[in-house]
Amino acid sequence: MQYFSTYQSLMVSAKSCDRCKRHAYVDDAEFHEFLSIDRQAGYGSVFGDGQQLKLDLCQHCVKAVLGDWMKISPNEA
Question: How far is it, in rounded angstroms, from Cα 77 to Cα 70?
Fold first, then answer.
């Protein structure tokens, strides 16, 4: 005999850039190029102890804001 339980799960279906507001759905190539940060700040953080940090940036904003410091090289795999 098999017993079943129901459960609800969430999945990301779209993203919006927090800088330029560009919007992309999961079936768009642009969606998969977003940089998403979701982390908790540690003790002594400039953001405040234990604060939750969340950020979604499209690839265009990542390049514009962080491009000067990024190391970009061919995939080694």
Answer: 19
In this prediction, residue 19 carries a pLDDT of 98
Provide the pLDDT for residue 67.
95
3-state secondary structure 39-72: EECCCCCCCCCCCEEEEEECHHHHHHHHHHHCCC
Residue in 52, 49, 27, 29 with CA at minimum distance from that of residue 39: 52
* Structure confidence by residue, pLDDT tens digits, 25-67: 999 999 999 999 999 999 999 999 999 999 999 999 999 999 9
Cα–Cα dist 60/16, whole Å: 12
Residue-wise pLDDT tens digits, 12-30: 999 999 999 999 999 999 9
